[in-house]
Design brief:
The chain has helices at 13-22, 67-80, and strands at 2-9, 28-34, 55-62, 86-92. The chain is an alpha+beta fold. InterPro entries: N-reg_PII, N-reg_PII-like_a/b, N-reg_PII/ATP_PRibTrfase_C.
């Protein structure tokens, strides 16, 4: 089992929901308003007067076999609008209850 943590500009929300639905990833946790700044070229997303855009985040627990396809689809979405920003990170899930 893997955890995919996705941070993204809020404009991507519906497309990310679609990617998760299309790949039968039912369970996830969603944070609507998260602040951040890209590590290389990303502009700040602070929800302030100077930097008004905001990010959101989703963490989804998926089967190992689903990871590559999900990352590929998320990468393609990011390439469509690189200025918005989207990152995905994968962690091993050691145990669940």
């Amino acid at each position: 089992m893997k955890a995919i943590f996705i941070t993204f500009d809020q404009a991507h929300l519906e497309m990310i929901h679609g990617i998760l639905d299309h790949n039968n990833c039912r369970g996830f946790t969603y944070w609507e308003n998260v602040q951040g700044r890209g590590s290389v070229t990303g502009e700040p997303h602070y929800g302030s007067h100077a930097w008004p855009s905001m990010n959101s985040a989703i963490i989804a627990m998926v089967e190992d076999r689903q990871v590559d396809n999900l990352l590929d689809l998320l990468h393609k979405l990011d390439e469509q609008s690189p200025a918005l920003g989207l990152r995905a990170f994968v962690w091993n899930v050691e145990q669940t209850i």
